[in-house]
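Per your request, structure below.
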């Protein structure tokens, strides 16, 4: 069944095509049904006598697509390059953020409608697409029940390269014992070591990487529940779909927001009995990229994923929501910006402060706003600074009634 936001995407794509714009990129979070939207587009085209080519980056994704698009020509870009160029009615491109190189140019047909989909657009996609359609945000999908709520725990600061707050197995045992987890490590050798440490602690685990001889059997053992943990480098970053997995352990830094969102996206899908997801961030990458559900905007230019920012240039601490007075430092909670074998530095992991605020009741929110109004006045700022801080903390503006009550407390 097509969800309302999926239908809205299909309608927008058809409107663009009718207006003569035939290169369209759909942006939709991991787990929100990009393949379902592709199937609707493909089946509509096929029903009208057209032809459809569907391109996927890996064979595993091709197998998934054939189950719901049996009449489409499903292949990888690499296979299509070796064949004579085709000119189907429609070309559908999964994980379209990969199609920024010359390979896609050798396959793309100017005669075809080209529609790509990705959760994480990258720089350079303006060369491949003219229009961008955003389906839904992670926050909206969570609120509507299409993704599960996500909690993130990690150190109070972004750790230097090569450092981990805790051993992955120890953090798993402390915070996610018994859950199914994916661990992202910095190299094949480190991933193998991490898997051994899990097994040594009595936790069934295996390492999955591009050179794994027994990769498919280990994935099957994980899906069956025999294995509780998979460690990986890049193999499981995208395209791996196992809804019951609920824990993501970041045992290496995420150099880009694209990598961060792809890795975290592995654990956001709902499943029977699954009430939420946990991200154990051992490097503090979330302090750089913010929570997965943070407000973001998407673009086809050189800054494709941007955090929603305020027009007046005010910046807030990504951990506690306090105004940043000195670049890179927070006077309130001490968070700072980011300044082989990882070194475990034995730092405590905490739920990021802004997440704790989401449980505040109405009275607590009003008291916090009154406190922030006092602090803004004391610092010589306008009251709007407190309102922006409220927005940064609660992801919504205070209501007029809340503002009036907070102002009364502040004036008392």
């Amino acid at each position: 069944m097509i969800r309302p936001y999926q239908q809205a995407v299909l309608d927008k794509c058809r409107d663009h095509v009718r207006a003569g714009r035939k290169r369209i990129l759909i942006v939709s979070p991991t787990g929100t049904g990009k393949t379902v939207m592709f199937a609707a587009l493909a089946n509509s085209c096929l029903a009208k006598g057209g032809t459809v080519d569907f391109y996927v980056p890996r064979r595993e994704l091709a197998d998934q697509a054939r189950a719901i698009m049996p009449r489409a020509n499903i292949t990888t870009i690499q296979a299509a390059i070796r064949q004579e160029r085709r000119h189907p009615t429609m070309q559908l491109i999964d994980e379209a953020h990969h199609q920024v190189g010359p390979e896609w140019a050798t396959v793309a047909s100017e005669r075809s409608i080209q529609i790509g989909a990705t959760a994480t657009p990258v720089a350079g996609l303006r060369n491949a697409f003219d229009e961008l359609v955003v389906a839904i945000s992670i926050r909206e999908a969570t609120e509507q029940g299409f993704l599960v709520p996500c909690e993130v725990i990690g150190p109070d600061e972004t750790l230097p390269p090569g450092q981990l707050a805790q051993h992955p197995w120890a953090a798993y045992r402390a915070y996610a014992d018994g859950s199914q987890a994916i661990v992202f490590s910095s190299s094949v050798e480190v991933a193998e070591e991490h898997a051994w440490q899990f097994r040594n602690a009595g936790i069934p685990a295996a390492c999955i990487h591009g050179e794994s001889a027994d990769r498919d059997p280990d994935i099957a053992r994980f899906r069956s529940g025999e294995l509780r943990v998979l460690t990986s480098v890049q193999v499981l970053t995208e395209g791996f779909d196992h809804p019951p997995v609920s824990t993501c352990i970041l045992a290496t830094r995420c150099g880009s927001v694209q990598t961060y969102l792809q890795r975290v996206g592995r654990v956001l899908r709902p499943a029977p009995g699954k009430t939420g997801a946990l991200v154990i961030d051992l490097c503090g990458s979330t302090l750089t990229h913010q929570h997965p559900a943070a407000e973001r905007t998407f673009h086809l230019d050189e800054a494709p994923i941007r955090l929603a920012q305020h027009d007046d240039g005010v910046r807030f601490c990504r951990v506690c929501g306090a105004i940043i007075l000195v670049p890179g430092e927070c006077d309130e909670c001490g968070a700072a910006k980011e300044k082989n074998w990882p070194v475990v530095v034995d730092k405590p992991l905490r739920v990021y402060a802004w997440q704790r605020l989401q449980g505040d009741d109405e009275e607590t929110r009003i008291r916090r706003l009154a406190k922030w109004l006092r602090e803004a006045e004391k610092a010589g700022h306008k009251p709007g600074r407190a309102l922006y801080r409220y927005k940064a903390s609660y992801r919504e503006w205070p209501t007029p009634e809340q503002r009036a009550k907070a102002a009364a407390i502040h004036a008392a």
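The first helix runs from residue 4 to 18.

Regards,
D.
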